[in-house]
């Protein structure tokens, strides 16, 4: 197996000139760097992974610079050594930017699936080959803009829409009521994400309102670590409540939160929680607890693909998060993931992640590029 030992790693921090969006009142247009890792074995076998780093003012190079210091330990290793590499990186002296750890693990899984001539979701278990999606909106101007936007997405085939909004209860809740009233009787699920910006009083009041409106879930009303607050929201309402999924990502932390009754479902992202290796364990943990895992997918196509493959490998996730409008999230990918007329996204074609990259476009927009041998 020596021919498959990794001999080169390339890192691209990509800052494309695309539309920038906001997710709450007072935010400026956010810069979303696309950090891409490409591993190459002596045999020519490759593995890729991508993750997003979202910051105000300018593109962030932190994940790329972190990879510079940890990738030398990957050189000479075999893609079959995923578990031991994951544990070694997890126990470094100083906690590192989590996306760096995640990208290495995902790229190793991509290599393994390509070597097996399988799409990644089939290597992971292959529970299904499609899943319903929800349109995940940016912040819009007013109630009518949301009504119009939801109508457009529904016409395209979406059966679910999640609102990013002002994160101000006095504006958010009337908007939710207006959209629900306009689309009453339609086959359309609605969700609300308030980016961890409510206080407990506002969150409990909002949850009761969303319960009455029949919302599919209420996302990130409080900071992820406020377990007691989440328990109280659930005690006072019936709408399903989930966290943002960016802070409590470790298996033991998630177990504590689930046992405490903080959330209706778990929430993680393979590109943030450490990769495919740990998210598989999260899926199993949730199944043992009788819970779903509503995986987030906000980012460019490679981020979406890694999470989609996990969703398709297991059956305890109900929706794929489809960031819209499409173009800003598809830069640098020949293959893209889009929702069909029936409201589903399908498994990408091809081996591994199944995403062909436009490397010329990636190189043209790279603000940091280096190679480790």
Oligomer class: single chain
Number of E-type strands: 11
Output the CATH homologous superfamily of the largest domain: Enolase-like C-terminal domain
Give the helix level as a range of percent: 25-40%
Biggest beta-sheet profile: 7 strands, mixed
Residue-averaged pLDDT, rounded? Answer: 96
Beta-strand percentage range: 15-25%
What string, H for helix and E for strand, traces the elements in order?
A: EEEHHHHEHEHEHEHEHHHEEHE
Q: What distance separates the N and C termini?
A: 19 Å
- The name of the CATH architecture of the largest domain is Alpha-Beta Barrel
Shape: globular
pLDDT < 50 runs, ≥5 residues:
none
Structural class, judged by helices and strands?
alpha/beta
Number of helices: 12
**What top-tier CATH class of the largest domain fits best?**
Alpha Beta
How many whole angstroms does the radius of gyration measure?
20 Å
């Amino acid at each position: 197996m020596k021919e498959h030992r990794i001999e080169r790693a390339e890192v691209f921090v990509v800052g494309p000139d695309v539309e920038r969006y906001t997710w709450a009142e007072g935010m400026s247009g956010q810069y979303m760097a696309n950090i891409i890792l490409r591993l190459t074995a002596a045999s020519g076998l490759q593995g890729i992974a991508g993750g997003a780093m979202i910051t105000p003012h300018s593109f962030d190079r932190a994940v790329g610079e972190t990879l510079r210091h940890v990738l030398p330990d990957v050189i000479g290793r075999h893609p079959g050594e995923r578990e031991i590499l994951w544990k070694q990186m997890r126990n470094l002296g100083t906690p590192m930017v989590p996306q760096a750890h995640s990208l290495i693990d995902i790229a190793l899984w991509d290599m393994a699936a390509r070597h097996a001539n399988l799409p990644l979701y089939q290597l992971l278990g292959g529970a299904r080959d499609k899943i319903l999606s929800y349109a995940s909106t940016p912040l819009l101007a007013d109630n009518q803009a949301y009504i119009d936007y939801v109508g457009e997405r529904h016409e395209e085939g979406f059966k679910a829409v999640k609102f990013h909004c002002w994160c101000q209860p006095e504006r958010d809740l009337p908007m939710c009521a207006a959209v629900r009233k306009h689309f009453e009787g339609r086959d359309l699920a609605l969700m609300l994400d308030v980016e961890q910006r409510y206080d407990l009083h506002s969150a409990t009041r909002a949850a009761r309102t969303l319960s009455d409106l029949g919302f599919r879930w209420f996302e990130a009303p409080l900071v992820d670590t406020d377990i007691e607050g989440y328990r109280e929201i659930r005690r006072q309402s019936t709408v399903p409540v989930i966290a943002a999924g960016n802070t409590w990502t470790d298996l033991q932390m998630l177990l504590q939160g689930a046992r405490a009754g903080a959330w209706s479902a778990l929430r993680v992202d393979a590109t943030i929680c450490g990769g495919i290796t740990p998210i598989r364990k999260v899926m199993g943990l949730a199944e043992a607890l009788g819970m779903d895992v509503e995986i987030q997918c906000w980012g460019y196509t490679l981020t979406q693909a890694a999470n989609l493959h996990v969703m398709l490998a297991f059956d305890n996730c109900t929706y794929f998060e489809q960031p819209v409008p499409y173009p800003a999230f598809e830069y640098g990918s020949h293959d893209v993931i889009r929702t069909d007329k029936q409201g589903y996204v399908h498994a990408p074609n091809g081996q591994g992640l199944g995403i062909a990259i436009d490397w010329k476009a990636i190189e043209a927009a790279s603000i940091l590029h280096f190679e480790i041998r």
